[in-house]
Design brief:
The protein is an alpha/beta fold. It has a single domain, classed as Aldolase class I (TIM Barrel). It starts with a helix and ends in an 11-residue tail after the last helix. Helix 8 runs antiparallel to helix 9, helix 9 crosses helix 11 and helix 11 packs across helix 12. It has twelve helices and nine strands. The strands form two sheets. A seven-stranded parallel sheet has the order 6-5-4-3-2-1-7. The relative contact order is 0.14. Bound molecules: iron/sulfur cluster (2 copies). The site of one iron/sulfur cluster has 15 residues, from helix 10.
């Protein structure tokens, strides 16, 4: 999100809307990545496992996503899955229309199939490709979206590489430098992001970083920032990783993002991870970045999170009033309006 969008986002919060929307546009994915939160049984809670949901296709998916955008009016939309590229025909219609509406769109994919070449010309579209570790580990975890296939499928684009650091990667000497050396030299890669594996509370999965690994990873990435110019990891984000929000209620990202699953109706709570995520071990880049923004002091005095909380209070009031007006005038419920926690 650019600086001008931060002010737009603030305006949306103060008028009672969440400025960011994230939509799992499909339940389908040809991969079976270990540690994938989307297919964990607790991801959607009472709604049931992702693979059991109704899944939209064709014009009904296009219309359904546009209806969500019309209803919630986000300034930023993340399209995730499942694997969004299994619906590439629908995206071919949706992406240009979202661009025309002035919405910043982030498409998160494994790049398991070719990314249509003309998508590179769509304004405000950022294509983010998930790549988990060095080739042997990645190819084992994320087949059939192997390094070889990704390199073919991103040709001619300008993608962002997104690596989620797991214990397996953190425990291997020089893995970050090797990863950056490889992906930095790829002409189709514009920048490289790192986030950290975020477990559920009590999760004992192999991917979970120990506190020592987490700290050493952040030290190492800080050191590598100067050597690799494509590494996009601002110091405030690194500091945000060191001190994650204590709970979803303290997480500006979770409170300002509405996450919707593949039935285009149900919310994923408390954040995109769903279930009961361990905020104290959060590795979400957006959450870390917004935590850092919230702690920034305006004129050296007032933390921005105080202004944010005041804006939320104003937004809640406006949202409640709007809900009453809508209920009065249309006899509809206020389900579509945002109420902040
Ligand atoms: S590609 Fe993404 S959605 Fe599919 S299994 Fe892997 S992590 Fe999960
Ligand atoms: S994004 Fe991270 S800090 Fe925010 S609610 Fe989710 S797990 Fe917690």
């Amino acid at each position: 999100m650019e600086k001008k969008d931060v002010f737009r986002a603030w305006g949306r919060i103060a008028s009672g809307y969440r400025p960011m929307l994230s939509v799992e546009i499909t339940r389908e994915c040809p991969l079976r990545c270990p540690g994938c939160y989307a297919y964990e049984p607790e991801h959607l809670g009472q709604i049931g496992p992702l693979r059991t949901l109704a899944d939209y296709k064709g014009q009904s998916l296009v219309d359904g996503v546009l209806a969500l955008v019309d209803r919630y009016r986000p300034i930023h939309l993340s399209i995730v899955g499942g694997e969004p590229l299994v619906r590439f025909r629908e995206l071919d219609e949706l992406l240009p229309r979202l661009s025309q509406m002035g919405i910043n769109v982030q498409l998160v994919t494994s790049a398991v199939r070719p990314i249509p070449m003309h998508w590179g010309a769509i304004k405000n579209l950022q294509i983010v490709v998930s790549i988990d570790g060095l080739q042997p580990d990645h190819d084992r975890r994320r087949a059939p979206a192997t390094y070889e296939r990704i390199l073919q499928n991103i040709q001619g684009h300008s993608i962002t590489v997104h690596c989620t650091v797991t214990h397996q990667m953190a425990a291997r000497a020089n893995s970050f430098a090797e990863f950056l050396s490889f992906w930095s030299t790829q002409p189709d890669v514009r920048k490289i992001w790192f986030s950290l594996f975020t477990p559920q509370v009590g999760d004992a999965a192999e991917e979970v970083l120990s506190p020592q690994e987490r700290s050493a990873t952040l030290d190492e990435l800080r050191r590598l920032r100067t050597a690799f110019t494509k590494l996009d990891l601002p110091i405030p984000v690194l500091e945000g990783y060191r001190r994650p929000p204590a709970s979803p209620a303290e997480c500006i990202f979770a409170c300002t993002t509405l996450s919707i699953t593949a039935n285009l109706r149900s919310r994923i709570t408390p954040c995109q991870f769903g279930g009961n995520p361990d905020c104290t071990q959060c590795g979400c880049m957006a959450s870390a970045g917004l935590k850092a923004v919230g702690e920034h002091k305006l004129l050296g005095l007032l933390p921005l999170k105080s202004l944010y909380k005041a804006s939320v209070r104003v937004g809640k009031t406006i949202s409640a009033v709007r809900g009453r007006l809508e209920a009065d005038s249309t006899e509809r419920s206020s389900e579509g309006l945002i109420s902040f926690r």
